[in-house]
# Entry
Amino acid sequence: MTDGNMKKEFGALLFNESTMQKYISGGSLDAWRECVKNRTVLPEKVTEDIAEGMKKWALENGATHYTHWFQPLTGETAEKHEGFLVPDGRDGFKMDFSGRELLRGEPDASSFPSGGLRSTFEARGYSAWDPTSYAFIKDRVLCIPTVFCTYSGEVLDKKTPLLRSCEALNRQAVRILSLIGDDKTKSVSVSVGAEQEYFLIPKELFGKREDLRLCGRTLFGADAPKRQELDDHYYGAIKPKITAFMQDLNEALWELGICAKTEHNEVAPAQYEMAPFFTDANTANDQNQLTMEIMKRVAERHGLVCLLHEKPFDGINGSGKHVNWSVSTDSGENLFSPGSTPAENTRFLLFLAAFVKGVDEYQELLRCSAAYAGNDRRLGGQEAPPAIISVFVGTELERVIDSIIKDKPYTDSGDRFLTVGKDVLLRLSMDNTDRNRTSPVAFTGNKFEFRMPGSSQSIASPVTYLNTILAEELKEAADIIEKSDDRQLALKRQIREMFSAHRRILFNGNGYDRSWIEEAAERGLKNLRNTAETIPEYISEKNIRLLTGNGIYTRKEMESRNEIHIEKYCSVITIEARTMLEMIRKGILGAVSDHLKSLSGRFEFENRLAERAGSLGNALLIETEALEDEFKKYDEAVSPEEKLDICANGIVKRMAVCRGVVDSLERIVDARFWPYPDYTELLFAI
Ligand code: ADP
Ligand code: MG
# Structure
């Protein structure tokens, strides 16, 4: 693609501001801008005008249908296409789409998870246009980003809480900024860049494995003789087949206005990463959902399958989604950037302290935002942060914080002093080598990188919680500063107190190290090792207070979400277990007997092999029956909590034992009989 082409193609399928300029009147465009900036309601006339322009543009670009595009609690996206074409008179037709269709949709949504918020007899869910994210065309369908709720207004999606949290943070940030003497900032916004990791494997091999097809990951697989120990894949030369995929992917993303900035091979064989250019949180969330969908489709076109599961293969790295997050003012100043004046430095330290405090106080909630079955397999494993939440700030900033806590001036390497909010500047040398890759929440110069989320999940909840905890801490600080006579003094005291009380969450060491687990326990940090341990924390009174208090959810919405989390976890685990049982019964046990039958029995080595394979086969049958017994218990269990416990402590553990036996068998059974492509084929075929 040439430069000129690129200009033509970039955002070609996006109804963005410059396209809107061509299709809607100046007055309507101004009203839309005002609506986006100040969250005002659009007059009916303007909505009609935008709908008309959007329709014209969509039809000119080949669209035949339109859909409200929403993000239900499945974590995926949903759409229901409506044709533009309607009959007109006896023989005629017209293309119909008005403000009403733009504004509101009524998908028959009875099958989306609602956690009891909506009974099937009143199954209607409503989708309502989100004018702050751009409409786009996908597969000749005009997609209108929308929020999704019940008839009585309870939220059923992931976008609404995200929008609300951005608003809560905006409110509290502007308020505290004004209290500390900034009266020019009228709004703040959240920026997000979500790095996406994924695997690519040949489609033909994928088709041969039921576990990959049904569960998105391998349930068995002995290690390949070579894994990632040579580090030769990471940033290695990209193979032509993959380059072709990446080029195609980039073009598909560019058309939708998604700027794929970097792409490279990741650590594990067959693993890759794509980082988009960051943008506002709402758009970044839409874009990441689209990116995942488009990755899968483009892969298909190249005879590949894109695996977004957090841990498709044991023994090598899993895939995460690093959420880069920062907050900026309407004049474009990044509030996590140590600025160039003492006042900016104080502002930076205030936001930093509030965030550090928030992470410490709401560790469990952040952990919740990345807790689900797939991510359980990744966290704490190779190259993934541990399940313990801590914040990395780097040694220099840590020294600054410690000097604030001790109320001593800070001397940096250039012999400059720092006293909070006074005369001296803080200039951090944000050296890239000083980056800790093992921390779940890392400060990287002017943003935080939340590395706990997994590759398949929506970023909406992680970002919602990051926003909300910061909003909450800013609110608490503002309440105190507001009441004091000397606000500058109160501000300094607040910064100091926040750092002092929450110092324990700062950790610059190696998060992969076993000793960190003990140290974290001594510091009183939570170690919620898996989803089953984490889920109950979600609806703790503390979290309910935080999220209802900031207008993110109602208590009822949280309770329903809690139910959905449990249900989803149990569904994933039981599907995996059933798939495993089927593969053992239909594929593996047969392969073992075929193998045994093929041995002539004339040689000593054959007898020894037969002995070993035979006893592993026997053990496998016993373990399979034990897994089936867990299933019986599961079916008999009544309460969701009981089912959750059986899944996490019964089924998952039994599955691990079965897997161990199968993997041992795979190592000795003649490859001619083994019914599934092995790790060497899957990972090194391209
Ligand atoms: P790093 O070297 O820390 O990985 P990059 O500059 O490569 O940093 O950025 C990684 C991701 O972070 C990209 O998606 C990028 O767009 C995003 N990013 C960069 N700056 C910011 C920021 N201020 N706020 C949010 N995201 C950002
Ligand atoms: Mg990365």
Summary: Residues 555-598 form the longest helix (44 residues). The chain has a mean pLDDT of 90. DSSP finds 23 helices and 19 strands in the chain.
